[in-house]
Amino acid sequence: MPAASQPLSGAASTDARRPVGDPVATTAAEKAAAKAWKVDLRELGRRAGSMREWEKTLAALPGWGVEMIGVPEGAPVDLHLRLESVMEGVLVSGTIDVPVTGQCARCLEPVEDTFSLDVQELYAYEGSTTEATSGEDEVRRIDGELLDLAPLVRDTVVLTLPLSPTCTPDCAGLCVDCGERLDDLPADHSHEVIDPRFAGLAARFADLNDDADGAQPGSGSTDTEEN
Ligand SMILES: [Zn+2]
Ligand SMILES: [Zn+2]
């Protein structure tokens, strides 16, 4: 059996949560939304050291999420970024504030939050040494004069999202018997055990029934041995 027949499985995909490709914008509105994330670099210039602040609120594009939580399409994402021209490309750094909504993995209640995330990423110029010596999945690329911030923000958010979001850190989940939220129920909520305050009374009723019906076997037989 030839040893080389086995493909290099797993070697290429370092993170399974990284989305595969960008969703393709088809309608004019989708194209306009995607275009808003592309920074025109012509005014930044290529002189190393030139810098530009990028303060903007942009609408989130579709598909920024994992199974139970994500950024709603069109939700406002606040960008506080700095674009800096360096030798090999443009360094993007700063913070992004992004609203996320989802469902508690334990009790299914809606979950709402805003993530404030730090980003720092080099986008390589076309024709730069960095571009020539790195894979497209390793270093982001500048496409002509356009730097697309959307994939950076999407990847940063998606990699931060919890796979099992919870409404509170210690959410107790749902009662397996009635399906109600345990956090909404009294601490002694239960279905199997008779309330301890009435357990003695229940046993006494069982005794009385036994006496009245003679040899009829009672349900509370454990307390009837000494009568
Ligand atoms: Zn919950
Ligand atoms: Zn219950």
TrEMBL record:
Coiled coil: none annotated. Pfam families: YceD (PF02620). Residues 1-23 are annotated as: Disordered. Residues 1-12 have a biased composition (Polar residues). Transmembrane segments: none annotated. PANTHER family: LARGE RIBOSOMAL RNA SUBUNIT ACCUMULATION PROTEIN YCED HOMOLOG 1, CHLOROPLASTIC. This is DUF177 domain-containing protein.
